Here is the input.
Amino acid sequence: MRHVLWMLLPLLAACQSESTSSAVSVAVAAPTAASVNHLRMRVDGVQWEADHDIFGAVHPKGYEKAVLVAGSFGPKDGSEQAFNLNLFGIDAAGTYPVKTGNPQLNVAQLANLTPERFLSGGPMGFDMRVEIVEMQAMPTRLTVRFEGTLMGNDNHPVNVTDGEFSYSE
Here is the structure.
């Protein structure tokens, strides 16, 4: 729908007469945050929002009962920051603790936060609370909220708050 509106905007502007003394403006509403795939959070109090490779999956082929969340920020070079949250053994929406050493092998990690802190979470350690608000496999619809701590490779805890993810195919 929004693609149609953006295509019509130049046509509407071209229809405006130059001889008309009153200005005519056409406003196209931006898509709401709920209608756009997004991954955002606060990392040590600073807003972080993925700008590419936003992906979600519910029970993907080859991963029974898995829920996957991913997104990246920045240029696709050595400084790209990538966030992953992989949950296993998930049957339904609900709240799940995701901690280092969990028997389901769930993992949360953020790569390349800084050149010195190239990995937070994953094998360095993590303690997150994840709320799956909505999950549907076909077509994929996934809404997740999360918060917690990721331990950095430099032994600095990275605090994640106000995490939210929304994805639909």
User: Anything to note?
Assistant: Residues 2-14 form the longest helix (13 residues).
